[in-house]
Design goal:
- The protein is α/β, with parallel strands linked by helices.
- The chain has eight helices and ten strands.
- Strand 3 and strand 4 form a beta hairpin.
- Bound molecules: hypoxanthine (HPA).
- The site of hypoxanthine has 11 residues, from strand 5, strand 9 and strand 10.
Length: 235
């Protein structure tokens, strides 16, 4: 059984899936960290692999950019492949000056102006919480590894090239938002509709207040801490 977007058969994908936006990062994670990685998807280049990490089966698959893209891939993983836990591992733009490049954020909730959750399940609010149990397991993993993390709300936006002006900054501060990314809200909406678990770890790749940014090459290799936290979790 496959879908229009995923060539895997039922049973090919682990209960827990780590999802970076970039499919080449999924390949990098599988080849660097997993034992015996087997590729289960290459439709549209959205590479997915299942292997083991310290003996435990785990999958990693790209989700693309934006709410609709992660919406499709994560819905299929939860609904058609019996996946229980999805942890997005991505990058974000910090919206507070005190967050530094490469800081790791454990995103507890997502604010979004998107209509994704309304269209999916009639939810008319703008804030969705990640799964508390999955989040606490990730927090434990970070503690065990002695890697510092920031916990907080993120904004899942539809527009990357938006004008982050003083009004936008004030609005985000009021809502307790510490960073902007483009997918978490849809992932949580899917998980909640289907009775599954969603969480999100992010590495700061740019700061929208101080305008510090990383290079693409630095991004590819500097996410090791975040990946280790996600891989070491006891899910
Ligand atoms: N905005 C949205 N998503 C992002 C950003 C950003 O500035 N940086 C990395 N992902």
């Amino acid at each position: 059984m496959s879908t229009p977007h995923n060539a895997a058969n039922l049973g090919d994908i682990a209960k827990t899936v780590l999802m970076p936006g970039d499919p080449l990062r999924a390949k990098f994670i599988a080849e660097t960290f997993l034992e015996n990685p087997k590729q289960f998807n290459d439709i549209r280049g959205m590479l997915g692999y299942t292997g083991t990490y310290k003996g435990k089966e785990i999958s990693v698959m790209g989700h693309g950019m934006g709410l609709p893209s992660i919406g499709i891939y994560s819905y299929e993983l939860y609904a058609m492949y019996d996946v229980e836990n999805i942890i997005r591992i991505g990058s974000c733009g910090a919206t507070t000056a005190d967050l530094d490049l490469y800081d790791v954020i454990l995103a507890t909730s997502a604010y979004s102006p998107s209509t994704y959750a309304r269209e999916l399940s009639g939810f008319t609010g703008n804030i969705l919480d990640g799964d508390a149990i999955l989040i606490s397991e990730i927090e434990e993993s970070a503690k065990t590894l002695n890697i510092p993390i920031h916990k907080g709300r993120v904004a899942s936006t539809d527009v990357f090239y938006s004008d982050f002006n003083a009004d936008a900054k004030a609005k985000y501060d009021k809502l307790g938002i510490i960073a902007a990314e483009m997918e978490y809200f849809a992932l949580i909406a899917n998980a909640q509709k289907l009775g599954k678990k969603a969480a999100c770890l992010l590495t700061v790749s740019d700061n929208m207040v101080t305008h510090k940014e990383t290079t693409a090459e630095e991004r590819q290799t500097a996410f090791t801490n975040m990946m280790k936290i996600a891989l070491e979790g006891n899910y």
